[in-house]
Amino acid sequence: MQDLIERAGQVKMLVLDVDGILSNGQIIYDANGIETKAFSVQDGVGIKSLARYGILTAIITGRSSPMVNKRAAETGIDYVVQGRDDKLIALNELLSTLDPALNITAADCAYMGDDLPDIKAMQTVGFAATVPNAHAEVINRSDMVTTRTGGMGAVREVCDLILKGHGQYQDFISHYTLDKVPAQDDLS
User: Fold this and answer.
1) Keyword set for this entry (predicted)?
2) For the chain, which end, N or C, has fewer CB atoms within 10 Å of the first or last residue's CB respectively?
3) Could you give the CA distance from residue 151 to residue 153 in angstroms, rounded to a whole number?
4) What does the mean pLDDT of the chain come to?
């Protein structure tokens, strides 16, 4: 676990897939053909926590949905790339548009995906994470498999780990408790 925390401490940007990561992967249509998705409130708190400590966030998804834009705006996600089947190309294009002063390369990113289209991007970044119900090939190529599934707090687990790696987890938690902030995060 210590190795994972140290690696997460190198992350400058978390890149997320949507279906199966931010949502449970189900695509639900109502009687009028309107698509709906469910998102985790806990994931939203985790995403917002990263922004508090200067860690960027992005979405790269193969589908296009106005709900993704709405959720990204609610949680303060910095970059949204939709409708892209080749997620590695989309990741490289996104990185090329960043302000050079940010000095963010693929090695500085964490990528969280759950299916075959995510693998190449996951193999390129410094930290790859997935969910327990991901495709076996994705699990085999991941540094971390969360205990929770997509849309049920899995992203929050990764956000918390990144905060621990950056030494900010206890400070973040202290905003929600009456506990005193320890001098340094407990990295155990």
Assistant:
1) Hydrolase, Lipopolysaccharide biosynthesis, Magnesium, Metal-binding
2) C
3) 6
4) 93
Q: What share of the chain is helix, strand, coil (3-state, %, to 5)?
A: 45, 15, 40
What mean pLDDT do residues 134-143 have? 98
Q: Beta-carbon neighbour count of residue 97 at 10 Å?
A: 8
Helix axes 66-75, 41-52, angle to 10 degrees: 50
Alpha carbons 154 and 162: distance in angstroms, whole number? 13
Query: What tokens appear for 97 in the block?
Result: 């548009």
Q: What amino acid occupies position 54?
A: G
pLDDT band at 27 (very low <50, low <70, confident <90, very high): confident
Contact 137, 116 (CB under 8 A): yes
> Roughly what angle, to the nearest 10 degrees, separates helices 41-52 and 154-165?
20
Residue 180, Cβ neighbours under 10 Å: how many?
A: 8
Domains of the chain: 2-174 (3.40.50.1000)
Give residue 36's identity as a one-letter amino acid code: T
Q: What is the DSSP string of 117-174?
A: GGHHHHHHSSEEEE-TTS-HHHHHT-SEE-SSPTTTTHHHHHHHHHHHHTT-HHHHHH
What is the amino acid identity at position 64? S
